[in-house]
Every structure is written in structure tokens, then in C-alpha cells.
Amino acid sequence: MRTIVINVLLFVTLASFAGADGKQVFETYCWGCHHQTAVAFGPPFTEIASKRSAEEIEAMITDPAGVSKLFGYKRNAMPPFKLTPEELKEITAYILSYKPKKKSH
Q1: Taking the chain (105 residues) in consecutive chunks of 10 residues, what is each chunk's mean pLDDT?
Q2: What residue numbers bound the domain in which 50 lies?
Q3: Structure confidence at residue 19 (pLDDT)
Q4: Which residues of 43-80 are buried (b: 16+ CB within 10 A; e: fewer)?
Q5: Share of residues in the chain with pLDDT > 70 (%)
Q6: What is the rounded CA–CA span in Å between residue 50 and residue 54?
Q7: CA distance linking residue 47 with residue 100, whole number of Å
Q8: Exposed/middle/buried for residue 28 (C-beta within 10 Å: 0-12, 13-18, 19+)
Q9: What is the 3-state secondary structure (H, E, C) of the chain?
Q10: In contact, 95 and 88? CB cutoff 8 Å
Q11: Is 42 exposed, middle or buried (0-12, 13-18, 19+ CB in 10 A)?
């Protein structure tokens, strides 16, 4: 029984280090230009989440020049990022977690 518990704990610990975390991806790639709720060099996540779908966010991360052109922006300062599919999913979910909540009346 003890061996099973140790193996489960080891698996859970290794799985937690292996997986991407949206905040960790943000701190690695995004924090220099974006803040969660305040304007920095780039727009805050609250603004992005209120205007863009998950697909648009992922496209902007992987092909910002092309997406900027599609959106009609005159210029683009964001570089493209080559993230793993998991990192892309996690950062997108993290950004969308800042979507303003609708107020109920």
C-alpha cells in the first residue's frame, strides 16, 4: 500500500511540473509588454479578453503580423511566439480569465 501511495504522489508531483501553467507562460513570455489589468506597452489582458475569442488570441500569439493586418491595424510591435500547444492553450485560458464579468441586474 505504501508503494502505491508513493508512486501516486510521485506521479502527481511530476505531472504538475510537466504541464504548462498560464501564469507561468505569462511570466516567461508576456510580462515585459502586457499586464493583467493595466496598460503597459501592449494592451492589458482585461481589454484583450473583452474583445477577442480564444481563436483570435491564439492566432495573434502565433502570427501577430498576419492577424494585425486582418484586424486592420496599421502596425504591429508584437513578435511571433513558438509555444507548445499546451502553453498556447494555457496562456489563452489565462488571458480569458481576465474577461470582465457581466453585471447582473
Answers
A1: 44 43 94 92 94 97 96 93 96 95 72
A2: 20-96
A3: 52
A4: bbbbebbeebeeeebbbbbeebeebbeeeeeeebebee
A5: 80
A6: 11
A7: 9
A8: middle
A9: CHHHHHHHHHHHHHHHHHCCCHHHHHHHHHCCCCCCCCCCCCCCHHHHHHHCCHHHHHHHHHCHHHHHHHHCCCCCCCCCCCCCHHHHHHHHHHHHCCCCCCCCC
A10: no
A11: middle
The domain that contains 54 carries what CATH number? 1.10.760.10
pLDDT at residue number 27: 94
In a domain, 64, yes or no: yes
Residue labelled with grid coordinates 493595466: 38
Q: What total number of domains does the chain contain?
A: 1
Give the CA angle between residues 86, 77, 79 to the nearest 5°: 35
